[in-house]
């Protein structure tokens, strides 16, 4: 049973605040950081294990299973209770982390990462759902703002931590980095109040729905990953993967309409406030993730920043998104208003990214960072509101499924946005200079060292062309932000 709205106020009972927040913050931090911490270790993994062509599966396998796991854990948490599932997810996470550190080849490492994603996806989904279960609606924004901050900081710091660990202790240490935190998280989860799930008589797990869901997610995410690689020879494979995903989606929707206990409750997802909030999460992921993924390339190519300087230049992104998330959460708790904050925030972000794109070539690094910081602060207004909205509209019966749907939406948006931005960059360069397009593909895979073989004049020309191509990429980000602004402004759920 949901607590009454007046029974808990984190501003008046800080001891209860700290008993709840760390218990969900640690699992969220570990799961999000594990998505990005491996990126810096990939060259070391490839050098150690070989099989360079398939090393990307170390990242892709985690992404695929984590995306699948998020709504599944939400579904099972609604039925059986979330605390015991959190222990299961933590156990899978730490066991698979040890398997990753011991893997003798890329195939087994990718398999262990897939298992790790099953744990990590659960940690993310359950952390969000536990906030909805324990905290009354009016105070959820307070917590969701902090969780959004933690997730952003973890995502941005992941590659930095991964690079340092790989350089000092070798790539296997990357998979053991979170081990002490998992031990602490096990202890903290014991402090979460026990609440039984809403298991209904005659409940039957929706196995066909899960099968169709897997057949939808796997080919779509793999297709998006292939699209990001700029390989014209893969077009037929990409089209076949998307076609398979489309067929599986149709079968999934037909199944969920007749299932007694559907994996994806369509009665919830059809609600206008919920589907618009989930679409807003897609736009948020499609704007923010490729921004973080490709900004390092821009800084290194256009401004000559070193790897360490690039890490410092990305810090304002995480800091200001965090500040925006925290402020939005406090405003929700104080005023009860929800969608007004991302409406205002995304309007500011749209103006900032449009200016960023149009003046990109002429901006000195200082002014560029000011605009980027403003845009990041404005984007921070989104995710806390999205989670609060879907959990309020879904009610206790579907609160886990609601949290899982948001995590799924944001992940798919991130994959789609990253693939589309890569395609826009590659297409822009292909029109002006096909050689620059090929070199950009190599930069994405191996870094700016791909330009080392060029003479100074040609290298300067290529770097200028790549910098100019980022105009189109940042206009794409502005387009995603504009779509999110429209969704936030028209969402009928305005207050808690």
Please name the defining characteristics of this protein.
Growth Hormone, Chain: A, 18 helices, disordered N terminus, globular, 2 domains, 496 residues
Could you walk me through the main structural features you see in this protein, from its secondary elements to its overall organization?
By secondary structure, the chain is mainly α. The chain folds into two domains: 196 residues, Growth Hormone, Chain: A (Up-down Bundle); 232 residues, MFS general substrate transporter like domains (Growth Hormone, Chain: A, Up-down Bundle), CATH 1.20.1250.20. Helices cover 78% and strands 0% of the residues. The chain has 18 helices and no strands. α5 packs across α16. The two termini are 18 Å apart.
The unreliable regions are 1-13
Mean pLDDT across the residues is: 82
Approximately how much helix is present in the residues? over 70%
The separation of the N and C termini measures 18 Å
Question: Under the CATH scheme, which class of the largest domain?
Answer: Mainly Alpha
How many alpha or pi helices?
A: 18
Counted beta strands: 0
| Radius of gyration, whole Å | 22 Å
Strand content: under 5%
Largest sheet: none
> Could you spell the SSE succession in H and E letters?
HHHHHHHHHHHHHHHHHH
- Please identify which CATH superfamily of the largest domain we are dealing with: MFS general substrate transporter like domains
CATH T-level fold name of the largest domain: Growth Hormone, Chain: A
Number of domains: 2
The CATH architecture name of the largest domain reads Up-down Bundle
Structural category is mainly alpha
Assign an overall shape.
Answer: globular
